[in-house]
Write a structure and sequence with these properties.
Length: 291
């Protein structure tokens, strides 16, 4: 029997409805939620398209959105100056910095200077540290989205063996920490791990997040396991066009797993919805309007 699909678009839509209701309440009280984003012109059209989509989505949900564009070649000092202004503006509830940044600019240094209370992407090291110690849920959005997708399956993670393939600072590692907080038994590995197939086959919950297309095949999946594919990869199709695929071979794994998330249409939409949820959270906290 084919696996049940974890429909990220449906989960995201439910979350967006909640965000829209809360944003409308804030606006009615005269304190509309507001997200400010910094975009440095890097020639990366993907970043600009993402920013434009973000603006449209915010408008649909009643969230104010301001994009602060800096010219190509902006140095670290000028980016930090723009960020400082947003941090200090009480009318700004949420701040994010679009990637990539120009050569010579340290993205970690920039992320570390985002006001932790306005850090809706969960990228400030202070917030990530608080997540590790269980003092905050301001985790990176993709990690939070992964947990929401697991919750959708109804699985009780306590005691479950969860294998996370990939240990990046803003995806794999935060996912592992959040799973530990649910009292799961967590194995963190990567594409170089010896015996990777055996580890993956032992998983009740398998989370490929290595950014390697086709890394997970059907023979690496335990029958009935939950597979949340966090990998997002652009590859060339047979006809020469480009398509987006995950780290798992979906057509193969779907026949073995109990649940599986597709790519696209899985973690991606939920990640965007979680970001907007965090914006409303930040606005409610800043204005004292939390219900």
């Amino acid at each position: 029997m084919p696996a049940k699909i974890i429909d990220g678009k449906s989960i995201a839509q439910d979350l967006r409805l909640n965000v829209g209701i809360r944003a409308a309440k804030l606006a009615a009280r005269g304190t509309p939620a507001r997200l400010d984003a910094i975009l440095v012109d890097s020639g990366d059209n993907g970043a600009r398209v993402y920013a434009e989509n973000q603006a449209r989505t915010c408008e649909q949900l009643g969230i104010g959105y301001t994009l602060h564009e800096l010219p190509a070649g902006s140095d670290q000092a000028s980016i930090l100056a723009a960020l400082k202004g947003l941090n200090e503006d009480p009318g700004v509830h949420a701040v994010m910095v679009h990637m990539p940044l120009p050569a010579g600019v340290d993205p970690h240094a920039i992320q570390a200077r985002i006001d932790p209370d306005k850090d809706v992407e969960g990228v400030n090291p202070a917030n990530i540290g608080n997540v590790v110690y269980g003092r905050s849920m301001k985790a990176p959005c993709t990690a939070l989205a992964t947990l929401r997708m697991l919750d959708h399956t109804g699985v009780d993670l306590k005691g479950k063996r969860c294998v996370v393939v990939g240990a990046s600072a803003h995806v794999g590692r935060p996912i592992a920490v959040l799973l530990m907080q649910r009292e799961a038994t967590v194995v963190s590995c990567n594409k170089f791990t010896q015996g990777l197939g055996d580890l993956c086959r032992s998983a009740d919950v398998l989370i490929p997040a290595a950014g390697v297309p086709g890394l997970i095949s059907a023979d690496m999946v335990k029958p009935g396991a939950i597979v949340v594919d966090v990998g997002v990869n652009r590859v060339k199709a047979v006809d020469g066009s480009m398509k987006t695929v995950g780290d798992a071979l979906f057509a193969e794994v779907e026949g073995v797993a109990g649940w599986i998330s597709p790519v696209p249409g899985g973690v991606g939409p939920v990640t965007v919805a979680v970001l907007l949820h965090n914006v409303v959270d930040a606005a409610e906290a800043a204005t004292g309007d939390r219900a």
